[in-house]
Amino acid sequence: MTAELQGGAGPKELIRVRGLHKSFGSLKVLQDIDMTVETGKTVVLIGPSGSGKSTLLRCMNLLETIEQGSITFDGQEIANLTQQAHRIRRDIAMVFQNFELFKHLSAAENIMLAPMKVKGVPRLEAHDRALELLEKVKIPDKADTYPEQLSGGQQQRVAIARALAMDPKAILYDEPTSALDPEMIREVLDVMLELSNAGMTSVVVTHEMSFARRAADHMVFMDKGLIVESCATDQFFDGEVSARTKQFLDQIL
Ligand code: ADP
Ligand code: MG
């Protein structure tokens, strides 16, 4: 939940998806998706494998083109801005299941790369910031370590630090802990929860329901490319939900 007030301006829609349709060939993967993410809030997105969760995040990050509908970010229509995807991705960072770190770069260099290349931040400044961010994700002593010498949980925290290095307005996480051994899941979720509590606007695909209860302001359940349920977290877990949602929750809780 958001701990900080937003200057009395009231809730603001940072990401707004309306009437989104996406197909791969004849396969309709997303159908008439509406979703709103307010500034400073965390939305957790769940659903069975193949329901379209990753595709929806990828559309928001302009990694996929869409056939129909609208995606606005901070008031700007971005769905047709694939030519400017790099600019949009400064503001909407994405964290992947498999970390996707550059293997030939140390942890600090992974974090420094985009600020230096994209924003022209001087090396020393980028390095100082990388050290700060490694502290924030609780691996301050790993700056010079290469990905293969890090545990999965440490690699994912470097990936989160790398996302933060661009000072994004939102972070999209696609099953960030599902490739991790159980004992490492917690350390990654703790970092995500801290960011969420500090007011980082987040969309999280995860089946870690204890995290969802603590971090999410809003829950979305998708099935077969459709949004089945979209409601406040308390309502989702403790209130009335549809039979399909309940069935899915019973499977994973
Ligand atoms: P989820 O993340 O919920 O498991 P995905 O968004 O990855 O679901 O996939 C939704 C559907 O789209 C699945 O049927 C998947 O096979 C299909 N799909 C995903 N990416 C592609 C692609 N690049 N080409 C063809 N089909 C795809
Ligand atoms: Mg997926």
TrEMBL record:
Subcellular location: Cell membrane
Principal subcellular localisation of the protein: membrane
Domain ABC transporter residues, every copy: 15-249
Short name of any one Pfam family annotated for the protein: ABC_tran
GO CC annotations, alphabetized: plasma membrane
Keyword terms of this UniProt record: Amino-acid transport, ATP-binding, Cell membrane, Membrane, Nucleotide-binding, Transport
Family matches, as PROSITE patterns: ABC_TRANSPORTER_1 (PS00211), ABC_TRANSPORTER_2 (PS50893)
Protein family membership: Belongs to the ABC transporter superfamily.
Protein name: Polar amino acid transport system ATP-binding protein
